[in-house]
Structure prediction request, 69 residues.
Amino acid sequence: MAAEPQLTLIFQDGHTQTIRNYVMTPSTVIVIDEAASGRELRIPLSELNLQAKERAAQQAGLDFAPPIS
Prediction:
């Protein structure tokens, strides 16, 4: 079984975070990498550099587009 692709989030302040399992809402990325332990991280899209994130996702062959509300 192939490993799930990694997605690197790029924040407005320049730091990054690599995730694998996530759900997107029109305003939030919900990271569920540790859902089995009862933890989930909610990251407002306003904290992300979406243009840099989209470029990085395209380079990794991933589609990263927030759903339209």
Summary: The mean pLDDT is 83. Helices lie at 50-59.
